[in-house]
UniProtKB/TrEMBL annotation:
<dbReference type="Pfam" id="PF01266">
    <property type="entry name" value="DAO"/>
</dbReference>
<feature type="region of interest" description="Disordered">
    <location>
        <begin position="410"/>
        <end position="437"/>
    </location>
</feature>
<protein>
    <submittedName>
        <fullName>FAD dependent oxidoreductase</fullName>
    </submittedName>
</protein>
<dbReference type="InterPro" id="IPR006076">
    <property type="entry name" value="FAD-dep_OxRdtase"/>
</dbReference>
<dbReference type="InterPro" id="IPR036188">
    <property type="entry name" value="FAD/NAD-bd_sf"/>
</dbReference>
<feature type="domain" description="FAD dependent oxidoreductase">
    <location>
        <begin position="4"/>
        <end position="49"/>
    </location>
</feature>
Length: 437
């Protein structure tokens, strides 16, 4: 069995640590934020501060793939989330009116999942990690760099542990970077004189405005979770403990959207969207939370078939991240952790082979999610820009149509080639009037 260090104690880092600890490895998770997770969901939302996670209070969701992965790899975690107040979601209960056949079918369960707000879901996962006998979570410990060891491949640096900002060295047979979209590991690898990773980076150009509410029951879903409405888009997400969120987003360069920071303006715009207005029927528990500058980045640590480093891998957003509109970050990260577990099982004793096996699995199973999201984002922002300028938008993007079809699989198979149905709401002129009051 190995000694493994996971850098980053978010949901993906903790899930990766739990999976590896389940296989008998001794796992240490190093998390720079010092605060321990609170014991209740209310305390997690009201009082837990995670300065290292810029989007900690922004909307998150745990999609069906997350549940499928953890049910296989970490049995019981879904039930712990539900016990913590997370909401059970079944999108097959709100199929489009055009689908007349609503009879249950074998396999429908794979579309069901449990989700909640990020602080609450992370607190539940953290509690499971704290209870594991082979997993240690050390909070308030920041990694400053990597400790070099004897090379496993000619000319390729090997990582034998990490060095903290206090100078402590923590030895490891494998170091996992799960520090998220702000990962500093490029600097760590440069200090080892590693060859540069293959990096692709850009900015999505979206700005998000979100408000959370609570009420006696979740709003009924009569529109898609992610809905294009003219030159803006809306995201509606159920949350834990009778909470939910509504997000309005558009291009960061669309200056009039800055008015959405005002709660009155935000509510006025959402109220003008017929399939989403009822999501305002609750008691707001926040003002309008704004977020911009989300980075699209992809880093591959195997270049031309040769690892740039051994003894070190990147998982989740530390590997690749996109804008959060599809809400797939944690679910894709859990899948990535599952692939890492399999790679460690097969190739732990050969660091070069481990790097290659994990890279190949990542490219085969996960990279398509990143590429598809980039394509959908670019198509949508092009459409938004055209509507904002008064031009005819380009034809419907087949990638986005495919994403919609995939959401309910066979139930929408007959419609896979059709563009997403339009969502009623304000046109550009009406939107500007709503923003201006």
């Amino acid at each position: 069995m190995a000694t493994i260090v996971v850098c980053g104690g978010g949901v993906v880092g903790l899930c990766a640590g739990l999976m590896l600890a389940e296989d008998g490895h001794e796992v240490t998770v190093l998390e720079p934020d010092p605060a321990d997770p609170p014991g209740t969901s209310r305390q997690a939302w009201d009082g837990w501060r995670r300065a290292g996670v810029a989007q900690f209070r922004q909307p998150h969701t745990l999609l069906p793939r997350f549940r499928q992965v953890v049910d296989r790899e970490l049995p019981g975690l879904t039930e712990r989330l539900a016990d913590g107040g997370c909401v059970r979601v079944d999108y097959l209960e709100s199929l489009p009116p055009s689908i007349a056949d609503r009879a249950p079918r074998p396999g429908d369960d794979r579309f069901r999942f449990v989700t909640g707000r990020r602080p609450v879901t992370e607190a539940v996962v953290a509690a499971a990690a704290e209870e594991h006998p082979r997993l240690s979570v050390r909070r308030g410990v920041r990694v400053a760099g990597l400790v070099p060891g004897p090379s496993a491949l000619p000319g390729v640096p090997h990582v034998a542990g990490v060095r903290t900002v206090t100078g402590e060295e923590v030895a490891a047979d494998l170091v996992v970077d799960a520090t998220g979209r702000r990962s500093p590991s490029a600097d760590w690898l440069a200090e080892l004189d590693a060859r540069p990773a293959r990096v692709e980076s850009s900015t999505s150009g979206f700005v998000y405005y979100t408000r959370y509410s609570t009420g006696p029951e979740q709003p009924r879903r009569i529109g898609p979770q992610l809905a294009p409405v003219g030159s803006i888009s809306l995201i509606t997400l159920g949350g834990d403990n009778d909470t939910w969120s509504v997000t309005v987003f558009g291009p960061a360069r669309d200056a009039p959207l800055k008015a959405l920071r005002e709660a009155e303006v935000f509510d006025r715009v959402v109220a003008a969207c017929p399939r989403h207005a009822h999501w305002l029927d609750g008691r707001p528990i926040t003002g309008v939370l704004a977020m911009a500058g989300a980075l699209d980045r992809y880093r591959r640590l195997v270049v031309d078939g040769v690892p740039v480093v051994t003894g070190f891998v990147a998982a989740g957003d530390a590997w690749a991240c996109t804008n959060p509109s599809a809400g797939r970050g944690i679910s894709v990260g859990a899948l990535h952790a599952q692939l890492l577990r399999a790679a460690v099982r097969s190739s732990l004793d050969d660091p070069g082979e481990l790097a290659r096996v994990f890279d190949e699995a990542t490219e085969r199973e996960v990279t398509s999610f990143h590429r598809g999201q980039l394509a959908a984002d670019r198509a949508r922002i092009t459409e938004m820009d055209a509507l904002r300028a008064g031009r005819e938008p380009p034809p419907p993007d087949p990638v986005r149509a495919g994403l919609l079809a995939a959401a309910v699989a066979e139930r929408l198979a007959a419609h896979a080639g059709e563009p997403p149905p339009g969502t009623p709401g304000p046109d550009r002129r009406q939107l500007l009037d709503l923003l201006a009051g």
